[in-house]
Amino acid sequence: MYLTIKETAEYLSLPESTIAQLVQQKRIRSVYDGEQYLINKDQFNDHLKQVEKAKMQLEEWKNEPIPESVEVKDED
Fold first, then answer.
1. pTM of the full predicted structure?
2. Does the residue 10 lie in any domain?
3. Which residues form the Helix-turn-helix domain (predicted)?
4. Of the candidates 11, 5, 9, which has an alpha carbon nearest to the alpha carbon of residue 39?
């Protein structure tokens, strides 16, 4: 499925200017049809999965209790 720059910006929750700049820098693959740039939506699937996985790992890490160590002494 192909998206316009505007649709891609909405899909990624980024400003249109950022998407247009990334297309011009060739950091996002696109096709120019003579009128507008079209961007294949599938190229973002792996990235979005990795972002979600990283968020889950961070939440797990934040919720993990701090282990008590016998070597840690209370100086008070």
1. 0.64
2. yes
3. 2-50
4. 5
